[in-house]
Amino acid sequence: MTEAAAKFDEMHKPDGSIRPAYGEYCNWHEEQQSDFLRRKHFEAEGSFRRTGITFNVYGEDEAEERLIPFDMVPRIIDAGEWRRLTRGIEQRVRALNAFMYDLYHRQEIIRAGRVPERLFRNNDAWLPNMVGFTPPGGVYTHIVGIDLVRTGPDEWYVLEDNARTPSGVSYMLENRETMMSMFPELFTRVGVEPVSDYPRRLAKSLAACAPSVTQGKPVVAVLTPGIFNSAYFEHAFLADQMGAELVEGTDLRVIDGRVGMRTTRGFKPVDVIYRRVDDDYLDPLTFNADSVLGIPGIMDVYRAGGVTIANAPGTGVCDDKAIYSFMPEIVEFYTGEKPLLPNVQTWRCSEADSLAYVLDHLADLVVKEVHGSGGYGMLIGPTSSRRELADFRKKLEANPTNYIAQPTLALSTCPIFTKKGLAPRHVDLRPFVLVSPDNIDITAGGLTRVAMKKGSLVVNSSQGGGTKDTWVLKD
What we know:
By secondary structure, the chain is of the alpha+beta class. 29% of the residues lie in helices and 23% in strands.
């Protein structure tokens, strides 16, 4: 499906009438004065600046920090639609966790010929240090973000899996808080499922994964690389909201087989570390010897059962876009069911036939790096110049295993607020999932990212995208 194909408008039916999910919101919107809405639009921007909700942009000479645009028109999903989505999300997350366990143990899926061994043998995200080890509670992916796109009334697709360190939940929470403070009357007219209890549920879920050596109430800490990290606001926000400690590597030390946190009364054992530090920097004795962000010896403590690391080291394999292309097989192998949420059609450029097809249709496809993220290193064929297509063709031919390709989907649109009124823009959705030994908890909503530029398909904050509040309606 190409960008030129018909787009699904989530607010309007083809005849221009309003879809039921948006009915009460549109009634409210029609009652408001345009001056009032414009004033609220600027109030929201000022609020985000005061709160410090910014995104660091690397590799540019201009301002290091940018404000993430917030759009005050909510994205609305009805209760029935959300129930269907959650069933598919839960199925996929169960399969991802089972896949992780299998990859680091008997590798039955490879023995069965459902996934080729080469996909992880040469994959930097697969960690030999995790072989034969089972994390506390058997949970690998404690926090998961599943990126979804919509192309029709009942047509949702998984665009990517984020099983390593999914970000963006702080924006989901701040978007809702901003909306409730600006338009409290809206939430009395429209029944919307809450998201504000996410930090409490996150803390509860992490505590449930504490190691067996824990005594009393588990101590949870958020490990951050520091204030210069692009997601530092989120690290500090979540630690504060959870009532957890925000720590850097220098605040922690291995003492007597435990990880201790520096306090005014000496070092206190930490049971669960929600780490926002990449695998390679987690332990300089095991991984990158030059790292100053991690804790020397933490992997030995982890493997001995002295601490829980969330998400588990080595889960980055699931973020690999080549692995993603095998997710239908992975879901069926571990659940015995067909996937409830399909993948986007994907060509693996490592395969000769697929590469030939991609090279022949480069101008119609989206091509992504296998390990890429944030909208970087990708080609959107229909919007690329001849020069860009030619340059990318050389990259593909030089290193085809580094790329996958997908159709240029006609992503659904939701309205945003503009000076001229409401205007449609393309969106995706990242629901957040919490996994504990006995429960999978999916927050009713998630982060809707929106391409603020007309016609753009790139929703990433680093590429100029914005966010909006996501409403799941109550029954």
